[in-house]
Amino acid sequence: MFTGIVEEVGTVKSIKSGAVSAELKIEGKTIFSDIHLGDSIAVNGVCLTVTSFDKSTFTADVMHETLNRSSLGALKSGSRVNLERAMAADGRFGGHIVSGHIDGTGKIVSLTKDGIAVWVKISASPEILRLIVEKGSIAIDGISLTVAEVTDKYFQVSIIPHTASNTTLLDKKTGDTVNLENDIVGKYVEKLLSFGKKEEEKKSGITLDFLAKNGF
Question: CB within 10 Å: which end of the chain, N or C, has fewer?
Answer without folding.
Answer: C
